Amino acid sequence: MIRDVLSKSTNNCSRIRDSRSCAGGANHDDGTNPSRSASAVGKSSWALSRPPRWHWWLTGVIVAIYIIFSVLGLTTSNLGAKFAHGPNSTTIGPTASLRSDEYMAGTPMELSIMETGDQATTGPLAEESSVVQRIPIGPVQHLVFWDSTLTKILSFLPDAQMFAASWWLSSLVLLLAMPYWMVLMGGRWNLAWAATFLCVFSPANWWWTFQISDQLGFTVLGCTFLLLAARGAEKKRWKFAAILGILSAICLAGMVSRYLVWSLILGGGVLLATSVKILHRWRDRSLLTLISTGAVTLILALAVLWEGRRGMAALTAAVYPGQRLTTGEASDMGWTFSANFFFSLSAGQVRPVSAPYTYASNISELSTSWNFLLLIIPFALVLAYQTQRIRDRLPEIALGLWCMLWFAWGFVGTGGFGVKIPLLNSVPAARTIQIIGALFAIWLMLTLSKIKQRQLSIAITGSAVVGMILLHSGSELLLRYVPSFSYKEVLLWSLVGAIVTFVLLYAPRSSWALIASASLGLSSVIATPPLQIGLGSLRGTQTANRLSSEGQEAREKGELWATDTMAGNALLIANGVPTLSGLLRSGPVEDEWLKLDPSGRFKENWSRGGGYIFFKWSLLRHPFFTNPNYDVVEVYVNPCTLAEIYPELTTIVSDNRMSGAGLECLVPAGEIHLQDLPQSSASESAHESASPTQTASAGTSATATAQAHPSGPSGTSGTGKNKRSGISDPASERHADNTQYVYKIQR
């Protein structure tokens, strides 16, 4: 479809004797034409300039890499932190246990869908999470969440290959779609690719498991379809415009899924700029396309939310995060501009700094996108506005205002007043600082595309200012967060930022702008994650095969399992075993929790979303609730009592042996193992595993906890201090808790 548009543009070019006057600018390696007025492009037509030859080579390389990675089953998953040593599986490089949201939640749920060919096997305590996890449950969601639908349809394919293909899909879409979108918005091919690489290869994107790609990829694709549809409508190509408009609506309706905070910021900015681009032209046909596509998008989005209404209602009603209100915060410079210093930075190098001073208590929270690009934009605006009227740059202005609004929310403190601002008060300031740099990259490259004349003085001044600010930021980063850094490294990477600034301001039309941007992005993520080939012990091991078989039987009979470890939950869910414990991604099912807490005394503890549920087996007569982390619900309960409350509960899993008085309902049913450890490690694990006498001590510990809090725990008791929480450091107990003991309920 895009090739068809390009071929028509090329045919028009062939009719013009002077190829320099053609919109394609085919004689220039960067696909641009310096002799053509940028304002003329905006006034006359939406010229999708002919891509340079290197564009097709680069596209081919990216697609080839995607295919190779998919065939090899290669990802950057951190599942090796808990589930290494599986057959045909290799983990290259150190894992980061702090990314538990990926390997304890997202990855197991996706593998669960592949195992069942339908829904993930989360239990009755958790409300459906179709919108939050982008897992379709209704007909409209199956259309809008087409990527997840493909995972269901193609569940017969090898899981490792399907998982890898799904892992990289959103990044592939972003890499292929964004250059076209930016050129349609008035950008140049080299700068369009520069922005694309900076969005994909940013520390925040890689440390947050490609959530920037997830939120931007399909939205940018939808906006590209929308611009092409409006362009086709102006040429009276109605069928072409209608098809693209429908495709656009399908992609854009998916903005309401996944992490809604980042979807609002990233997707909202791109959609706003696209809409202003069409409105600025004020042509009847393109306006009709915008209105009709917007109407279809709204209908689809509302239908998606309606089908997922139970999960969304549970999420908004939960104590966390639904009822959380925030305010603007003055983030420190070291954190704000940290992306420039992420080369070879490892998780162990970060010194935790607790709130309220900052949220950046680990390397994942510390990671940001390219916020330093904001420092370059004023210099680029000076150069761009010398040759172009402000009204011809309304799309970039709209995008810029959107960027500054959200950046200010994370950079300027607003105190109690900020809590009263609707919409903004639902977005943690830290989350805006982490990802707004992706939009800065787009804003900057669109602005640089309008520069016609280089000015050495502005380029030197801009690079000097950026270099000095980065020196200060890097020094603060060293003192507050990364004590292992040296001032030589601060100086080096500040100099690199200054050089990139100079290249972008002085030679935005050249290939060096693309090379500098791509090199900066790659250098920041090259040492970030491990490389994971295969699915570790989540597939192909004796334990995985057993759980797959018993999981199918449990689904057919409506039976439930429950475990007392987060790793055990992940292993069960990944293999399609229905669990009473496990994940709480959207929010709680209140009626089910009231079976455990009839009086509702502990509602503040179990009314959580975006988190986890696991039990701690004890001898307590009544369930007792704590929160070792703000998104973790921990329930102390006797497994026999739990079986009485839930008759469908048939199997208990524990990392301790359990027997004795009060546990007569438990019948040993063998062992399972989190991973196939080498022989020496397995012997060590067996030696360190709990003895039968530990059950009594576990029960005593739970009883002591209850006695220490006779009125019940607070909503945030023990925040993060319980070492059993997989959020704190699940990898540290790899050998000690590898063995899990299985018990059947005898009634």
UniProtKB/TrEMBL annotation:
Residues 17-39, 678-747 are annotated as: Disordered. Pfam families: DUF7654, DUF7657. Residues 554-644 form the DUF7654 domain. Residues 57-448 form the DUF7657 domain. The chain crosses the membrane at residues 54-74, 165-184, 191-210, 216-233, 240-256, 262-280, 287-306, 368-385, 397-417, 429-446, 458-478, 490-507. The keyword Phosphoprotein does not apply. InterPro entries: DUF7654 (IPR056071), DUF7657 (IPR056074). Keywords: Membrane, Transmembrane, Transmembrane helix. The keyword Transferase does not apply. Residues 680-720 have a biased composition (Low complexity). This is Uncharacterized protein.
